[in-house]
Design a protein that fits this description.
This protein has 467 residues and is of the alpha/beta class. The protein has 14 helices and 22 strands. The protein folds into 3 domains: 215 residues, 3-Layer(bba) Sandwich (FAD/NAD(P)-binding domain), CATH 3.50.50.60; 111 residues, FAD/NAD(P)-binding domain (3-Layer(bba) Sandwich), CATH 3.50.50; 114 residues, Enolase-like, domain 1, CATH 3.30.390. The radius of gyration is 23 Å and the shape is globular. It binds flavin-adenine dinucleotide and nicotinamide-adenine-dinucleotide (NAD). Its cofactor is FAD.
Length: 467
Amino acid sequence: MSQFDVTVIGSGPGGYVAAIRCAQLGFKTAIIEKYPTMGGTCLNVGCIPSKALLDSSEHFENAKHNFANHGIIINDPVADINRMVARKNEVVDQTTKGIQFLMDKNKITVFEGVGSFESATQIKVTKNDGSTETIDSKYTIIATGSKPSTLPFITLDKERIITSTEALNLKEIPKHLIVIGGGVIGLELGSVYKRLGSEVTVVEFMDKIIPTMDGALSKELNKVLRKQGMKFNLSTGVQSVERNGDTVKVTAKDKKGEEVVFEGDYVLVAVGRKPYTDGLAVEKAGVDLDERGRVKTNEHLQTNVSNIYAIGDVVAGAMLAHKASEEGTLVAELIAGQKPHINYNLIPGVVYTWPEVAAVGKTEEQLKAEGVAIKVGNFPMRALGRSRASGDVDGFIKVIADEKTDEILGVHMIGARAADLIAEAVVAMEYRASAEDISRMSHAHPTYAEAMKEAALDATGKRAIHF
Ligand code: FAD
Ligand code: NAD
């Protein structure tokens, strides 16, 4: 029987990063992945393919609506969905092969098959051809991720009633895409198809889209996406979804309790994701799950069985690739006897619509609920020279600082390249910068990042220069 110091089950951004860090620390490491390609949800059916389609559809949108304003005339550009999906597949292929390369480079043994516990130290790998192999491992890291959730009354036929996985592989552009859930997936994939010409109707249960983010972001994103033609039905609870041939019908109740019916040709169910432990046989190792099916861990991501850890989407917390990766590194270092730390408050969140939405730290609503005295600075992107040059004038940056100490407690932004701009806020907050600190740092001109300095100036005492 092969023996390993550490075995990682699942090769997503949690698992493969954990495996690489374990190998770097000198552990004999194995990784088990049930699919033939490495990289998990993120690389195969999540972050990377969705961003590839977002980028392609954004080029199309620009060619169709924005190039003429820049003096570039292209008559009637055509969106070729098959080529877009093929390009997306090429991007996925290169990226997943890159992980295989990293496994080889770090001398990590890769097992292809379903990993299931036989005991707390033995894991059986069942390969696609049905053959099995059992390995012995001193430590195991569960990194089995998540799968799309659905609603109890919905039957996903994966053809017209679909999840994000199928929405990344459509063979035609929907005429009318009905999106259930105005969260990250609904708005990102809704944006892809809106840009490609679909009518897109979002049905959201809460009274706002991206409901967990700062209210100001939700309001602005709603405004901008409506301007782009997306339709929103908020405070609307879906009751049933039916398919009839090529037509789908979604019946819901609006906030007055009245029935509303939406008819389209595709329904994207984007109501969250659920932890995935099917086939893992955690009970044979004695590992406990919580009431939501997540692997239960302590603050060191250690399960109730001391040599078994769990990370990423399968444990509590934000379901984000970079959170999973931080946890992978943390667990590897803990096993090596180091004392790593993750500041969960400073895991940034990004929505890759255009304009992009990004945030770190606490929202204004959270800070108010906690009774923290705050000051808030805002700066609109349209006041920047850089925004006017590119034409990306929507959005703002909001900096929230402690009223007394001036320490930055939250940064919330919507605008061009916010996904990249948020890194400055993360660094600042990790070093416990004050709004004054940011306002005194030189920001290159003309850049979108100048809005960060201006919002900080606004927070420190309404000293913004350009607004
Ligand atoms: P996963 O990536 O889910 O990987 C788990 C792996 O374990 C899978 O490969 C699975 O096959 C394997 N596995 C499961 N059980 C077994 C078993 N018993 N044996 C062997 N292998 C097993 N996050 C971001 O931060 N940014 C984004 O832009 C972003 N975009 C997204 C877009 C979409 C459409 C979706 C669906 C998700 C997106 N996410 C994004 C979320 C991100 O993909 C997840 O948070 C991330 O993949 C979680 O990583 P993980 O390693 O915990 O699990
Ligand atoms: P989500 O939690 O972001 O959004 C789900 C939305 O569905 C919420 O707004 C919720 O109120 C709504 N909803 C729930 N039940 C409903 C119902 N019955 N009717 C109508 N609306 C309902 O989940 P998601 O968009 O499915 O994404 C899943 C996970 O994947 C998220 O946790 C997210 O972190 C991750 N993800 C991240 C990114 C990114 O980082 N850019 C992109 C995609 C996905």
